[in-house]
Specification:
Layout lengths: L1 E4 L6 H11 L3 E4 L6 H6 L7 E4 L2 E4 L1 H12 L9 H30 L9 H19 L12 H15 L7 H11 L2 H7 L2
Parallel strand pairs: 1-2
Antiparallel strand pairs: 1-3, 3-4
Helix pairs in contact: 1-3, 1-6, 1-8, 4-5, 4-6, 6-7
GO molecular function: transferase activity
Protein name: Glutathione S-transferase family protein
Organism: Roseobacter denitrificans (strain ATCC 33942 / OCh 114)
């Protein structure tokens, strides 16, 4: 059985949702980032962490890729063109969505007050909006990679939710509907209820 470390309102949600989609049993330790409990599993205190037996894995996207490959679900097979395209989408989302949201978070509450530059958030919101428009244009089916949910969908939906919570501008109707449909999945609902 797996153990997920990190609160639902963090990148740990990605891992919880993935495990629900896979139908895999897991325990959940709601350890806050940088807490002593989180440092038990990751010396940096960053969450999420995943225990698989005695092994500890960190970084939400490394964990999602590991789980998808291990269980052969929610991913294209490694070494295929489809996987290369999926990985390209994942990396694009990390660069154009996740990194922008993380930069905004750092300048909102993560960095010490004297290191924050709140004025940068306006440019980050504009950059995110431009990326959201690009993503909407890439949607060609119910999911980013076609007819089945894959790792990039979990990442994209998590980032869209994060953007709403961070007060970013609303995305266009097509991308909004995409996120809404993902949030209505039973696995998402089960993970969010933890």
């Amino acid at each position: 059985m797996y153990t997920v470390i990190g609160p639902v309102k963090s990148r740990a949600m990605r891992v919880l949702w993935m495990l629900e989609e896979l139908g895999e049993a897991y325990n959940h330790i709601d350890a806050a980032p940088r807490s002593d409990a989180a440092r038990t599993y990751n010396p940096s205190g960053k969450v999420p962490a995943l225990l698989d037996g005695t092994e500890v894995l960190t970084d939400s996207m490394a964990i999602l890729t590991y789980l998808a490959d291990k269980h052969g679900k929610l991913t294209a097979p490694a070494g295929t063109i489809a996987r290369a395209r999926q990985d390209a989408m994942t990396f694009w989302l990390l660069d154009e969505f996740d990194a922008i949201l993380w930069a905004a978070a750092k300048h909102s509450f993560v960095l010490p007050q004297e290191q924050r530059m709140p004025a940068v958030k306006d440019s980050l919101k504009a950059e995110f909006s431009a990326s959201a428009d690009q993503l909407a244009a890439k949607l060609d089916g119910p999911f980013l990679m076609g007819d089945q949910l894959t790792v990039p969908d979990i990442l994209a939906c998590h980032c869209l939710n994060w953007a709403v919570g961070a007060g970013f501008p609303r995305v266009d109707d097509r991308l909004f509907a995409y996120g809404k449909n993902l949030r209505q999945r039973p696995a998402f609902q089960a993970a969010a209820a933890r």
